[in-house]
Design goal:
The protein is of the alpha/beta class. It is built from 11 helices and 14 strands. Helices cover 37% and strands 27% of the residues. The strands form 3 sheets. Strands 4-3-2-1-5-9 form a 6-stranded mixed beta sheet, sandwiched between helices. A 5-stranded mixed beta sheet has the order 12-11-10-13-14, sandwiched between helices. Helix 3 crosses helix 5, helix 6 packs across helix 11 and helix 7 runs antiparallel to helix 9.
């Protein structure tokens, strides 16, 4: 299949997470959105579909999304796919320049030391992201073969043509690089419904990742349990009051603090790894909160105070132009940041 055949054909983004699938078609040069949509999924069924080749759950969900849930036009068949970051292993490391001639062997050795799955069961991709006379810096990403194979089978069965697959945090990094000075050494805290992904973005590249099974839904459950209220009321308290000053601040902060402290501990761990192993004296300059859980008022100030560094909720929406399309409601916009990163890939860059 020739490069020319690929170059001018549009790509749409397809974000497959544990809790939903999002789709977006856009002009990457103008960030003009042609179409978008989402469908909620059941996490246990997603897990089964990723590990069981006989499941049609992802295929059926994509078909429903395409036929019933798209606002505007997302009719291209060629898709760039994001998979849950938690199902991948990403790592940056340095090697002596002399290893470049046998680089794949050196990367496999690193994978065997770091990843708790045999390298023979993984798809491993890597690239040199920096070099000097003495050493090269490698970015490695690996995912279990069974997960990639099952996702690709599911997507193809839905009538789509996959051209790229990457961890979702890489897609987020692409948007933040273009909209939020992501070329600076940046901590990303991506709070989804059920999980939080943490990464360091530097010079437009994800350098290290981490994460844990706490998300926006956890915050809602924490409030419901601590304040003894229904889930619906807890959600309202979360998005309207959160950590902001007010009569309920003390009780809400007390309810949310254990989960936020666990996220903070993971953030510090990822930051420490970057500082000790990767940074080359480049100081972390900002923390950006994204994802559906970023709708917690006061969360930017929480990280600013805890880490003594500028932190804020990222707002990349000024870059996306919906023109005549109905925009997603404000509370749902954060769920589209990953798929926007996929939709912004220019076809010719897949060949770089």
């Amino acid at each position: 299949m020739s490069k020319l055949f690929y170059k001018d054909k549009p790509i749409i983004g397809l974000d497959i997470s544990n809790t939903g699938i999002k789709i977006m078609s856009a002009d990457p040069k103008k960030w003009l959105v042609h179409g978008y949509g989402s469908i909620d999924l059941e996490p246990l069924k997603v897990k089964d579909a990723m590990e069981n080749p006989n499941s049609t759950y992802i295929t059926d969900s994509i078909k429903t999304l395409l036929s019933e849930k798209v606002i505007g036009d997302a009719s291209s068949k060629r898709v760039a796919i994001a998979i849950p970051t938690a199902r991948s292993y990403s790592r940056t490391f340095t090697l002596p320049s002399s290893t470049e001639k046998a680089l794949r062997d050196a990367v496999i050795l690193e994978a065997d030391q770091y990843i708790p799955i045999p390298s023979s069961s993984l798809y491993i991709d890597y690239q040199i992201i920096e070099r000097n006379k003495k050493e090269i810096t490698i970015l490695m990403s690996a995912v279990a073969r069974v997960i990639i194979d099952n996702i690709l089978t599911s997507v193809k069965a839905a009538g789509l043509d996959p051209v790229l697959i990457e961890p979702s945090i890489c897609s987020v990094g692409r948007v933040l690089t273009a909209t939020e000075r992501g070329t600076l050494p940046t901590v990303i805290v991506d709070i989804g419904p059920a999980t939080t992904d943490i990464a360091i973005l530097d010079k437009g590249t994800i350098r290290v990742t981490g994460g844990l099974a706490i998300g926006g839904n956890t915050f809602t459950l924490d409030i419901a349990k601590k304040l003894n209220v229904e889930l619906e009321n807890a959600h309202q308290l979360k998005v309207l009051n959160g950590l902001s000053a007010g009569p309920r601040q003390q009780k809400l902060t007390a309810a949310l603090d254990p989960s936020l402290q666990r996220i903070l501990a993971e953030v510090k761990k990822v930051m420490r790894y970057y500082d000790e192993r990767i940074s080359n004296d480049r100081k972390l300059e900002q923390l950006l909160v994204v994802g559906s859980g970023s709708n917690l008022p006061g969360i930017g100030e929480y990280f600013t105070n805890a880490l003594i560094m500028p932190a804020r909720v990222a707002s990349p929406w000024q870059k996306l132009n919906f023109e005549k399309l109905q925009e997603p409601p404000k509370q749902f916009r954060p769920r589209y940041i990953t798929v926007a990163g996929l939709a912004s890939i220019e076809p010719e860059n897949i060949w770089k």
